[in-house]
Amino acid sequence: MDALSQFLLLATAAFGAGVLNAIAGGGTFLTFPALVYTGVPPIAANATSALAVSPGYLGSTLGFRPELAAQPRSLLVREMLICAVGGVAGALLLLVTPAKVFEGVVPWLLLFATALFALGPSIARWAGSADGGASPLWRNVGLAVVAVYGGYFNGGLGILLMALYLLVGVTQLNTVNALKNLNSFVLSVLSVVAFAIGGAIVWKQALLMAVFATFGGFAGARLAKRLPVAWVRAIVIVTGLAMSVLFFMRSSAG
Q1: Transmembrane residues, as ranges (predicted)?
Q2: Among the residues of the chain, which ranges form H helices?
């Protein structure tokens, strides 16, 4: 693949990821495979993809400033620290994972993330109807586990965080989204820092994709008001399944 074709593929994937993340999530299903297809090794592709989509989390967090301001400062600080540590731990786990092992795990991670995305509304309804009010200890433990997963592989992170907060008794959906966005931003930034220190990020591709993902996020915010979310969800699910199949075939062939 020549340089122009790579540029167009990565820019398009990043722009599409920004649009999808702004409307329904699932941008990782575009950025990660595009990087692998252009020759970036899977571990580096995962780290680079994490950086590419991270700017969108900041915008989403700023959009929920009133909801975050209404939360106890001590709670926000504690959960940010948990997510920071968990995100770094997940990133370090990725960095020490042998390349061959990660290549074998990738199809399953993609399939798991796709299943999470597909079942997201059902999970949210079930969690919302469950008897919440779990102890702070279980809330912290659950958040730490999700943060490690998010630092290791970003796909499906938002759905896991939303389900966790609903399960532990957070009843206001805007508050759930605010906490989800804040903690996604914190763990993503810290995991990206760990990836950068570990030398796992391919900077040229990462910066290019971050710019186009940001543009896609702006476009997605406008489309969100016009495009039926069900259509976008269907596109994301089909894309996730297709990418899972392709990576299973790639793993088998290897």
Answers
A1: 75-96, 108-128, 140-165, 185-202, 207-224, 230-249
A2: 3-23, 28-37, 42-53, 55-62, 65-69, 73-96, 99-129, 136-152, 157-167, 173-197, 203-223, 229-253
